[in-house]
Amino acid sequence: MGCVQSFREICDRQKNTNVRFSLPAVCFVWQTAMIILFGIFIRYNEESSPRWKEYRREKNISSDIENDFYFRYPSFQDVHVMIFVGFGFLMTFLKRYSFGAVGFNFLIAAFGLQWALLMQGWFHSLDYTDGKIKIGIENLINADFCVAGCLIAYGAVLGKVSPVQLLVLTLFGITLFAVEEYIILDLIHARDAGGSMVIHTFGGYYGLAISWMLYRPNLDQSGRLQGSVYHSDVFAMIGTLFLWMFWPSFNSAITDHGDGQHRAAINTYLALASTVLTTVAISSLFQKHGKLDMVHIQNSTLAGGVAVGTAAEFMLMPYGSLIVGFCCGIISTLGYIYISPFMEKYLKIQDTCGIHNLHALPGVIGGIVGAITAAAASESVYGHEGLLNTFDFEGEFKDMVPTRQGGHQAAGMCVAICFGVGGGIIVGCILRLPIWGDPADDNCFDDECYWEVPQEEADIPPVLQYNNHMQNKDVVESNFTMEQN
Amino acid sequence: MGCVQSFREICDRQKNTNVRFSLPAVCFVWQTAMIILFGIFIRYNEESSPRWKEYRREKNISSDIENDFYFRYPSFQDVHVMIFVGFGFLMTFLKRYSFGAVGFNFLIAAFGLQWALLMQGWFHSLDYTDGKIKIGIENLINADFCVAGCLIAYGAVLGKVSPVQLLVLTLFGITLFAVEEYIILDLIHARDAGGSMVIHTFGGYYGLAISWMLYRPNLDQSGRLQGSVYHSDVFAMIGTLFLWMFWPSFNSAITDHGDGQHRAAINTYLALASTVLTTVAISSLFQKHGKLDMVHIQNSTLAGGVAVGTAAEFMLMPYGSLIVGFCCGIISTLGYIYISPFMEKYLKIQDTCGIHNLHALPGVIGGIVGAITAAAASESVYGHEGLLNTFDFEGEFKDMVPTRQGGHQAAGMCVAICFGVGGGIIVGCILRLPIWGDPADDNCFDDECYWEVPQEEADIPPVLQYNNHMQNKDVVESNFTMEQN
Amino acid sequence: MGCVQSFREICDRQKNTNVRFSLPAVCFVWQTAMIILFGIFIRYNEESSPRWKEYRREKNISSDIENDFYFRYPSFQDVHVMIFVGFGFLMTFLKRYSFGAVGFNFLIAAFGLQWALLMQGWFHSLDYTDGKIKIGIENLINADFCVAGCLIAYGAVLGKVSPVQLLVLTLFGITLFAVEEYIILDLIHARDAGGSMVIHTFGGYYGLAISWMLYRPNLDQSGRLQGSVYHSDVFAMIGTLFLWMFWPSFNSAITDHGDGQHRAAINTYLALASTVLTTVAISSLFQKHGKLDMVHIQNSTLAGGVAVGTAAEFMLMPYGSLIVGFCCGIISTLGYIYISPFMEKYLKIQDTCGIHNLHALPGVIGGIVGAITAAAASESVYGHEGLLNTFDFEGEFKDMVPTRQGGHQAAGMCVAICFGVGGGIIVGCILRLPIWGDPADDNCFDDECYWEVPQEEADIPPVLQYNNHMQNKDVVESNFTMEQN
Q1: I need a labelling partner for C475 at 20 to 30 A (CA). Which of B65, B154, C107, C400 fits?
Q2: What ipTM, to 2 d.p.?
Q3: Which domains, and CATH codes, for chain B?
Q4: C285, C294, C464 member nearest A20 (Cβ)
Q5: Would the pLDDT of C4 be above 70?
Q6: Interchain proximity A455–B482, CB inside 8 Å
């Protein structure tokens, strides 16, 4: 701890938020690298290649509509909206950091998805005959998923880092994600369609560990900017609602064709509905006068979607989904009320968006729910064929049984946490280097650091504002007239 | 009337908007009830169960893509967006009630869809072999539809009721909806794919009757908060546009596979386009200086979608759709200009969002259009098979003829109105009880009652604001500099 | 030039923005004309008619899911969102023109799509057996595409024209569009799935030519209104993101079933991702202190989608898409920094939204990329069947070869530019007539001209505001209390 402390002190020099050379340099170099790597590695798969018609005949596929595109494209677009509008607008709640929220979210997602196509491609879609990664719609969805992990981490450090740091966070985040995903899904053979473990737990702990490494003892110097204003809260609700509405698509996007996608959508739909009611209940109950807190409505209502991520494709049953949502609404809201202040005060983890309560904790719950549901699976419920299909008991795992699968699920959970915490600490160390252009403690949560912000009349003190108004005589006169009426 | 009046007086005691115990209590108890009822009654249907593959083979279905999920999921997601973003943001136009608009919309929709799955399930999806309700994607769409009826009613009482009242309104609204829907669609055998009658007419009159029961003679005490501000009008346009764009999905979501969905989408697309032009025309014509009124653009542009709800799947013909939209744009806008003030003044119905002009009246028109189109149907236009499929002339209705179907449509219309008005009066009585925590007359349309609202600098009177600014010297100085340039 | 100048002077009389009679008149007359023309010409096609089931049997189509509706409806809805929310909100960035941006966008799109169904129908979907236009989902998508051309043109004249002028612009724009599209796609046999040439190049130059004809030397009199405010920039990001996210649907909406749609979506997805990084890089590099400019992020990030429009369905290869996006991000952002000021100062083209940099220039690049990619096509890459399908080498073009196709693509490009510039000059002449109710030079970019704008407290000068506050004593007192704490 002492070592960490002294490392921190070394890094806290005079801050300079000018990223005029570092940001363009990183963008150009990395994008050029992407082009080269894509040129070497990435090709279309059979379903997106002009030879699809021949492939169709070979495989005896009767119609173009059976191209995977038509199974997954609607879900893909919903997931895409969640990544860019959902995550982006959810973070616009701060009064003067909406540009950074939605703009940097845009930047790192756009970079991340390219890198994810490569990283995940090497692990999952490499065609060993020619050494190329063959991509189709499912790869795009997985790339968006991978990006989601990094955007979750962004939530923890929102307003406290520079865009260059975010790009570094994303580069390492995607890399770690692809590795842990490979270990969890392929080596351990855990199932995790909606990514409770792979995405949310990993992303959550990754972000929290980074935030812990970047702890700012004097962050209260930016306290004036740390709240919301009326309209920024409404903007954030755009993010919340698009996440909430499209979560069934998120959890069902890469599940099995047919009943797999169908069931995952239903379970997620129900879990989320249940979460809303318990979130409202707890928010009102724990506030003086019973008033609702926008922070809870914006965030905790989504916890149920996180927590059914793993089990959504299993026979969780409709009431099971409601129960998971019920519990997560309570736990997540209590997290905002009790755990977040505790973590900031005692654990030195400053979590701007409360990702611990929205992603990390519900993700862990989701992993546990998934393990239990898997362990409880039986042929009487799933049918023989259904059980094999749902849990993918084939190939080297053809002798797997549900109870052991439950153990594997739990093992996957642990891997996700380890990668999140471990990776976050290492990346956090890197991000503490005094070269990234991050803002000073009294300058956090302020778009002025990295954006040309339009000057508004409300920014000018009233005396000047009045003079200013006098110059626009028309406006003033019409107002006087209005007053007299 | 005298009786109603005195009942009103009894109920108007000192108002207390603290819902700290009632709101959590209702949420917890009802959500727990949902879990229990779902545990007893709700199961997956064949298409969302792991036995789907076996079912496919049995029924000789050649591909997973013929799972109903792929026919309806894109439409479902569009409807879902309409319910949560469309209705939610449409109501954000008030200057200080955006939290309540979008937040309570969220709450009651999330509760309503659970209760709707049960209520509609008992009537429509009960499997008599095991007494379970078997749900799939179509049930989710129907649940969203059912919720729409209650959200319409919310529009009439927006800003004047507590969240607890809204939950009660929803509980009864969903129940009434399921019953009237069963009577209209199953017993009377009316067709109503887009719900002109079942959703909009019922929801509209239900809300208006409740608003009439909750009449507040001194509502002008909240007059300062009853308008919009510039940005709240822009937020409301988000709601308008998502409703407008996705209405073709709404009207086609549960119509027949193939041509049914295709035709319903085309008709709705056209009717809505036509409505926009006549709305703009009337809005400009009836305003001094020809300026457009945002209230009309936000609301009346949608009336065409309501009015083709019933007939969208019939052979309304493209020009027929345009004519319906043409008329509804005119009628709805004139409604906002003349009927709403009349209703408030003489009928004592305060209709915050003007749902009479957007839902009730166009819904009735839609019912009439549906009845006429059905009565005019012929084999020469539909083809023999097409006529049977479109109007579902089979089973006990296999001897039905189009003219009689027209009569049944009209009968359905009457049932919807009766359920709306009757149900609204009863529920309105219940909501007048002085136990629900509704706001006082001078406190309506104010988020302060039920939400922790962030303090904004603009709320502070200028003298204080100036001092406040002086504390942030940097800001002030930079502004001075700017002024001098 | 002298002639144009004197014509301009004749037209610059006293401005009167009252459109109380002209706007309703145009709306009513045109909408009535639409109804009559639809009555004469427009009918459902086989896939949306009740005779679909018979047609299916005739054509041996095995399932309802092969109705074109299911191939294209999800893409259609995404395109629809781009037209109404994407374009509408992208233009809300001006501080006091958000109503006009989103409202007039709504109006002209709603009119334009009806007229487009007719114009495009006459050229492409006319059934010569009965003289009727048979419409289905693909016609709706094409109508939306056609509208996009006019909305692009609106971007150039945003804030400087009346709604009546916009309707005239749209009427002629749609007409010109349908003709040039017929020439380019049918006569010249160029391929242009995503409309780089047909939509963006044409729309861009059409708008620029109109803006040149409507040049206002004293536009700086409205300078106070020409910037953005903080929240208007956030609103504009809603438009940006929905355009960005759904662009893969735009470029793939009318490509071939199966691999065509699949590949177009992948290419667009990649090009757009790449554009974001180079836009950020250039924006930061060319700004003092390296701060990002919202104008660039809102607009230039989309240039990659425009530029792969033509080639998206070809074998552009994933790395090719990245390269196109890379270049367009740079060029478009530099366009905003250097070309737009140059055009305004020296070419007398005032381009409010910078459509030259977002549509015209990237559109031309897209045409060139398309021509090169087509010319480079070979059977070894596409396969024999793939080549024929992708480039539609059949019927009278069955002897076409890729190199010649490249030439045809380039020819198509020239036609698009000529139609844009030529049509824009003619329509610009018409719009200069002093009868359209356009605003005076000191009144541009102001919603007050055409909208009832709500009065806001911030509009009232501070002294009055203070008194105003004093009337709401509660508020003031609570603030005092807050201050003392």
Answers
A1: B154
A2: 0.91
A3: 2-454 (1.10.3430.10), 461-485 (no CATH)
A4: C285
A5: no
A6: yes
